[in-house]
Amino acid sequence: MNNAPVFVKAACGISLIQYIAHAWLFLSGKPMHDNDESALLNDMHTHQWKFSGIFRSYWDFYFGYGLIVIWWGIIQIVLLWLLTLMIKVKSGFSLWLLIIMMTAIAGHALLSFYYFFPAPVVFDLIVWLLLVGSLLSFSRSKKQISKQ
User: How far apart are CA 26 and CA 86, in angstroms?
Assistant: First the structure.
């Protein structure tokens, strides 16, 4: 039995929760610590320098990166959903897409662990483990087909 689509669908659902939470927390976040945090955010907004010929503030980079992560989340969710549909066919392309997604998510987890905090790492590890389950199920089902 091929449970690979079930594992990928679960990974897609966990990713959806992860990136909805990221978008909500990032877009609605306010300073919560002290006046130093507010002063730092003010400085990030007001001080601008020319980067590659365009004036940008550190806030532009910070906020832009947060939006890029939200965009990556949308892409990840769409790709996992498409993989859910494709993996039923057991094609070589779906296997490669699965491996690429596993690599991307592992990289995201490592960078999140090093530069941020545990919450995204936990989500990434759950998604990655579900994709490992999908890979194992996919491999078993391909072996069963080749034996027939």
Answer: 32
> Where are the domains positioned within the chain?
4-147
Which residues share a beta bridge with 50?
Answer: 55
* CA proximity to 73, closest of 128, 16, 126: 16
pLDDT tens for the chain, residues 1 to 148: 678 899 999 999 999 999 999 999 999 988 788 888 889 999 999 999 998 999 999 999 999 999 999 999 999 999 999 999 998 877 788 999 999 999 999 999 999 999 998 999 999 999 999 999 999 998 887 665 555 5
- Calculate the CA 64 to chain-centre distance: 16
pTM over 0.90: no
Report angle CA 118, 9, 123 to the nearest 5 degrees: 0
